[in-house]
Design a protein that fits this description.
Radius of gyration: 41 Å
Strand content: 35-45%
Shape: elongated
Distance between the termini: 105 Å
Helix content: 10-25%
Number of helices: 8
Structural class: alpha+beta
Largest sheet: 5 strands, antiparallel
Number of strands: 32
C-alpha cells in the first residue's frame, strides 16, 4: 500500500515542480469603442493562485468571464493548461494598455489594445460597419437663448434587425446647466441616407438651458444584439452578434438674453397669447353680485411653470379675490405648450362705470428674433341694480382710450380708482367740509322723516297674508338654461356652452357664486374631465376640435349632493368662509 502512494506521488511530481507560464492575447486588434473584445489568458502549468482582474476595471467594462482546464501526457510527460476568457468593452479610445494580471506569484505579460472611434472597414461587405448601426444626436436650434426650448432628437439607425433585448440611454447634461425631459413616446420609422434605407428608433426631448455658454450633452449608449435568425439551440432568439454604439458628445452654444429686450420677464417662445373670459358680460353687471373672470396665458415653447402672474389692476372701489393659479402642459413631438390660468371673482358694491385697464405681457419671438407684446384690451365694467356710491366715493369715469385709442392716458392724478377726496387741494378743504356737513344733516333729517312715515303706514295698514314662494319661474329658467346648454353642445360651440353651463349652475343648482369651479368640486370624474376639456377649448389653441356630446351626457347624469343647501344672498362672506 505504501509503495502505491509513492508511485502516485512520483507520477504527479513533475506537475508540482513545473513553473507556470502565462500568456495573454486579444481575439482581434484594433477594435471600435462600441464593440466587445475577448482577451484570453493561458497558463501552462499549475498557477500559484486565483487571478485578480481588478486592474482591468479602470479602462474596460467586464461583461463575461469563463474558465477551462485541460490535462495531457506526451511521452510520459504530463502537463496541465488553464484558460481564462474575458469579454471586455473599452471605455476610452486610443492605445489602451492592458496591465499585467497577477496569478498568485505568477503574472501575465502586458498588452496594448488599439481602440478606434468607429469600427474599421469591413472589406468583405464592401462597406463600413460603422454605418450599419450608429447613434446620433441633433438639436433645433443649436444656438438657443437662455430658457428657450430646444428640441433634442436622438436616433438609432440600423440596417440589420435587432434583438428585442436592447437598451438605449437617455441624453444627459454633462457640462452646463439645464432641464431636459422626454416628449411623447419612442417612435419607429425609416430614413433614407446615402442611398441606404435605415430602420430608425427615434426619441425627442425638450431642453431648457439655464445659463449661457457651452452646454454639453454626453454620449448616449445603445447596447444590444443583431438578430441572426433562430435555431434549435436558440429557441428564444436571444443569440446574435453583441454590439454597443455611442453617440458623439453634443455641444450647444447658449446665448444670453438680448440687450435690446426691455420686458419685465424674459419669455422666449414661438408664440404667446393672452385670453380673458367673463362669466357675465362686463357691461351687464349687477351691484353686489360676484362675477367670474378667467385669465389665461398660452405659450408655445415654454412650460406653464415658467409663465408669470398677470398684473391685473383692480379699481379701488372693486373688491377682488383670486385663487391659486392652475398650470397645464401639453406635450407633443413639436414641443411643450404651457398654459397658466388665473381665476378671479370681482364684486362691485355700487352702481357706476369702472375702468379696468388693459393687460400687457412682453415676450421674445424666438422665430423672428423680435420683442412682441401680448395684450388683453381694456374693459369698462357697467354696474346697475344697486345703490349709488355714498358721499366721499364717486364712480370712476369710463376709460378715455375707448373713444380715442391714440390719445395718451391722463395724468396719474386722474386715475379711475382715486376718489374725489384724494384729489382735493388744501385751499378748498374748509369750504368742502362745510358742504359735506350740511349734506349729512339734511340726509339725517330726511331719513328720520321717512322712517316715521313708514311706521305710521304699516300700523294703519291691514294685516295681509304672508306671500308664498313661487318656484315656477325658477323652474322655467332652469329648463331654459338646460335647453341652451343642449343646443350649444349639439352645435359644438364651447363659448355658448360655457355661458349656458354657468346660467344652469345659478338657476338650476342654486350655487353662489355661480362658478364652474363650484360645480367641478361636486362633479364625478366624467363630468370633471368634460369641464377640463371645455376649458382647453376656450383657453387653448382653438375650439375646432371640441365636441359637446360628452359634456351634455355628463350633465344629464349629474346628481347634486344631498347636503347641498339653498343659495344664500350674494355677498362677500362665503368667498372667504374662514376669514
Amino acid at each position: 500500500m505504501v509503495r502505491f502512494w509513492l508511485l502516485v506521488a512520483c507520477w504527479f511530481l513533475p506537475l508540482w515542480v513545473q513553473a507556470a507560464t502565462i500568456t495573454a492575447e486579444f481575439d482581434r486588434n484594433p477594435v471600435a469603442v462600441g464593440d466587445p473584445v475577448v482577451v484570453r489568458f493561458s497558463a501552462a502549468g499549475v498557477v500559484g493562485g486565483e487571478p485578480d482582474f481588478t486592474p482591468l476595471s479602470k479602462d474596460f467594462e467586464i461583461q463575461g468571464r469563463s474558465q477551462s482546464n485541460s490535462f495531457s501526457m506526451i511521452n510520459g510527460v504530463s502537463s496541465v493548461q488553464t484558460v481564462w476568457e474575458l469579454t471586455l468593452f473599452p471605455r476610452i479610445t486610443g492605445n489602451v494598455p492592458l496591465p499585467p494580471i497577477a496569478f498568485g506569484a505568477d503574472q501575465s505579460q502586458p498588452l496594448v489594445l488599439q481602440v478606434l472611434d468607429q469600427p474599421p472597414p469591413n472589406t468583405n461587405a464592401g462597406a463600413s460597419a460603422a454605418t450599419d448601426i450608429f447613434v446620433e444626436l441633433s438639436a433645433e436650434p443649436q444656438q438657443p437663448y437662455v430658457q428657450q426650448q430646444t428640441i433634442i432628437t436622438q436616433r438609432l439607425l440600423h440596417l440589420a434587425p435587432l434583438q428585442p433585448q436592447a437598451s438605449l440611454t437617455h441624453p444627459s447634461i454633462e457640462a452646463g446647466k439645464g432641464n431636459i425631459q422626454q416628449l411623447g413616446k419612442t417612435r419607429n420609422t425609416t430614413l433614407m441616407r446615402d442611398g441606404r434605407n435605415y430602420q430608425v428608433i427615434e426619441r425627442r426631448y425638450a431642453l431648457y438651458p439655464q445659463q449661457s455658454g457651452d452646454l454639453v450633452l454626453g454620449r448616449t449608449t445603445f447596447e444590444g444584439s443583431l438578430a441572426t435568425g433562430q435555431s434549435q439551440f436558440d429557441p428564444f432568439g436571444v443569440a446574435g452578434q453583441r454590439v454597443r454604439r455611442f453617440s458623439e458628445p453634443f455641444t450647444l452654444q447658449i446665448q444670453t438674453q438680448p440687450a435690446a429686450y426691455t420686458g419685465k420677464y424674459w419669455l422666449p417662445a414661438k408664440s404667446i397669447s393672452l385670453n380673458a373670459h367673463w362669466d357675465t358680460p362686463p357691461d351687464k353687471l349687477k351691484a353686489g353680485e360676484p362675477v367670474g373672470l378667467t385669465l389665461a396665458i398660452v405659450a408655445d415653447g415654454l412650460a406653464a411653470e415658467q409663465l408669470p402672474k398677470l398684473e391685473l389692476k383692480i379699481p379701488a372701489a372693486i373688491k377682488a379675490y383670486t385663487d391659486q393659479p392652475e398650470f397645464r402642459n401639453e406635450n407633443n413631438a413639436q414641443g411643450i405648450v404651457g398654459v397658466r390660468q388665473e381665476k378671479w371673482v370681482l364684486v362691485a358694491p355700487y352702481n357706476g362705470d369702472y375702468a379696468l385697464p388693459d393687460i400687457q405681457l412682453d415676450w421674445w419671438n424666438s422665430t423672428t428674433g423680435k420683442q412682441e407684446t401680448a395684450t388683453i384690451n381694456a374693459a369698462t365694467l357697467r354696474v346697475s341694480g344697486g345703490a349709488a356710491a355714498p358721499a366721499g366715493q364717486v364712480t370712476p369715469p369710463p376709460p378715455q382710450t375707448e373713444a380715442q385709442p391714440a390719445t395718451p392716458s391722463p395724468a396719474p392724478s386722474a386715475k379711475p380708482q382715486q376718489v374725489v377726496a384724494d384729489s382735493l387741494m388744501p385751499s378748498t378743504w374748509s369750504t368742502n367740509k362745510q358742504i359735506i356737513v350740511a349734506l349729512l344733516l339734511l340726509w339725517v333729517v330726511l331719513t328720520t322723516a321717512w322712517l316715521l312715515w313708514q311706521w305710521k303706514h304699516r300700523k294703519s295698514a291691514p294685516v295681509s297674508a304672508k306671500p308664498t314662494n313661487v318656484a315656477l319661474p325658477q323652474q322655467r329658467n332652469a329648463k331654459t338654461a338646460l335647453q341652451a346648454l343642449a343646443t350649444a353642445c349639439k352645435n359644438n360651440q364651447p363659448q355658448a356652452a360655457h355661458d349656458a353651463l354657468v346660467n344652469w349652475i345659478d338657476v338650476g343648482l342654486n350655487l353662489r357664486p355661480a362658478l364652474i369651479a363650484r360645480l367641478r368640486e361636486q362633479a364625478n370624474p366624467v363630468l370633471q374631465a368634460e369641464i377640463d376639456a371645455l376649458g382647453v377649448a376656450l383657453y387653448g389653441r382653438g375650439d375646432s376640435a371640441w365636441r359637446g356630446e360628452g359634456l351634455w351626457q355628463a350633465v344629464k347624469t349629474f346628481q347634486p349632493s344631498a347636503a347641498q343647501t339653498p343659495a344664500k344672498p350674494a355677498g362677500l362672506a362665503e368667498l372667504y368662509p374662514q376669514g
